[in-house]
Fold this sequence. Notes:
The chain is mainly β and 129 residues long. It is built from no helices and 13 strands. Strands 1-2-3-4-5 form a five-stranded antiparallel beta sheet, with no helix packed on it. Strands 6-7-8-9 form a four-stranded antiparallel beta sheet, with no helix packed on it. The radius of gyration is 14 Å and the shape is globular.
Amino acid sequence: GLTIEGTMIYSMADCKKSVWVGAANGHIFAFNKTDAKLIGSWEAHQSPVTSIYLSIDAVIWTGADRGDMAFWDQRGDGNLSLLGRQEVHNRAVQSIITVTSHHIWSISASRSIVIWDIKSRTPLTELCE
C-alpha cells in the first residue's frame, strides 16, 4: 500500500486547498493541492485514522480504528487546534458525511450510525442494525 513517512495510508479527504491523509500510526497529514508539498502532520489518534471529513463549517472531523472521533480547527497559521474528542463507536469509523446543514452522520464497522449536531459536535442519536 501507499506509505507516507514510513506509515500506511488509511484515509484521504479533499479539504478545499489541501488534501488530508489519515495514517496507520494515528497521524494526519495535510498536503498542498497545487504542488503536493507537505503542509504539516499531527498526531490525531492512538490508532489508525480510518476516516477524514471537512464539514460545511470548515471543521475537520477524523475517525479512528478504535471508534473515537476528533474535531479540528485549521488555524490561519497552518496549525491544527483540537476542538474536542468523542468516543461513541466501538469499532473503526468507516465514513463521515454531511446529511443536512445541521447534521453529520458517522458509520462504524460495527454497523452503528451516529447522527451528530454539526455546531456542538455532540451525538444526537445512534441507529443500530
